[in-house]
Write a structure and sequence with these properties.
With 318 residues, the chain is of the alpha/beta class. It folds into 2 domains: 221 residues, DHBP synthase, CATH 3.90.870; 77 residues, no CATH class. Helix content is 31%, strand content 17%. Helix 1 packs across helix 6 and helix 9 runs parallel beside helix 10. The structure holds threonylcarbamoyladenylate and magnesium ion.
């Protein structure tokens, strides 16, 4: 049952945050800004509200969600950490890193959040509005605030275009500074940390703190962080990657020296390109682009997350 005929846009003020927290405590859904993308939040302890997230997104219910917490102490209350997990939280929280950890027995996390898995994904976001909302309403389960399979939202207008009428409110924090989702890692026994999703925190930066390489997530039989479903982050148009020029009928999304009709970053800056990626895809969607050529993006640092999203956007649709 989706019963939000009107979705309110709440201002980035203490009143806006208080109203958002009130809606969440009443079992409502509120989209809120994080430094990566907008999240569609519900209280992690409220199974009914979490069920409405899946309903609103039209998302397959086997996808577990990230729980957004205030700090490592709150993470410790929900999950079992180890020395390496603690070191990463210490180094990178608040920030664009999520850790998949063993769920603590009796933790106040609805089963639907973890999709019944014995683990839970946790992250402390760096955005001040997200932090204020968590402080006021408690840990928030939140996937990206887009309909399942569509491009992630990096502005309130993207959220309203996809989920308007299906959720109670959007807390308006303007555009998201990082622009791609968090990097996800999971401890893997004595072997170290496994990279489940490339994202806003470059793998190289994590490896520098761990003092050893992340294990690549290559086994396709794993439950696969479902963000890893092949077609994902998809605009309506077809994508052709690695393009140096447009073919007839194509719109060219440029990067660096490849100018294009619009560009992820004219100066070839990966940070700028990550921040612009989803907004560019949303804009091409809104303009009805049917064939999109994308210039090559170097595959290091944030470029790995950008190329991962582009490959999924270009994958055959189910
Ligand atoms: O940047 C982000 O992480 C954003 C913002 C809103 O924080 N959130 C986000 O959530 O991207 P979502 O639901 O779109 O992606 C969550 C990812 C999925 O790929 C999911 O499979 C993985 O986290 N995940 C969650 N819990 C997991 C678990 N217990 N084991 C393995 N993967 C898990
Ligand atoms: Mg998502």
């Amino acid at each position: 049952r989706i019963d939000s005929p009107r979705t309110r846009l709440l201002p980035a003020t203490s009143e806006g945050v208080a109203e958002a927290a009130r809606l969440l405590r009443g079992g409502g859904l509120v989209a809120f800004p994080t430094e990566t993308v907008y999240g569609l939040g519900a209280r992690a302890a409220d199974g009914h509200a979490v069920a409405r997230i899946f309903e609103a997104k039209g998302r397959p219910s086997f996808n577990p969600l990230i729980v957004h917490v205030a700090d490592p102490g709150e993470a410790e209350a929900l999950a079992e950490t180890g020395p390496e997990a603690r070191a990463l939280m210490e180094a990178f929280w608040p920030g664009p890193l999520a850790l998949v950890l063993p769920l603590r027995a009796g933790a106040p996390v609805a089963d639907l959040v973890t999709a019944g898995l014995p683990t839970v994904a946790l992250r402390a976001p760096a955005h001040p509005l997200a932090q204020a909302l968590i402080a006021a309403a408690g840990p928030l389960a939140a996937p990206s605030a887009n309909p399942s399979g569509r491009v992630s939202p990096t502005a309130p207008s993207h959220v309203l275009a996809g989920l308007g009428g299906r959720i109670e409110a959007v807390l308006d924090g303007g555009p998201c500074p990082v622009g791609v989702e968090s990097t996800i890692v999971a401890p893997d026994g004595a072997d170290g940390m496994r990279l489940l999703r490339a994202g806003g925190l470059p793998a190289e930066t994590i490896e520098a703190v761990l003092g050893r390489p992340l294990i690549a997530d290559t086994d396709p039989a794993r439950i696969v962080a479902p963000g890893q479903m092949e077609s994902h982050y998809a605009p309506r148009g077809r994508l052709r990657l690695g393009a140096m020029a447009a073919e007839p009928g194509e719109i060219l999304l440029g990067f660096g020296a490849v100018a294009g009709d619009l560009s992820l970053s004219p100066s070839g800056d990966l940070r700028e390109a990550a921040a612009n990626l989803f907004a560019a895809l949303h804009r091409l969607d809104a303009e009805g682009a049917e064939r999109i050529a994308v210039a090559p993006v170097p595959d290091h640092g944030l470029g790995r997350a950008i190329n991962d999203r582009l490959r999924r956007a270009a994958a055959p649709r189910p």
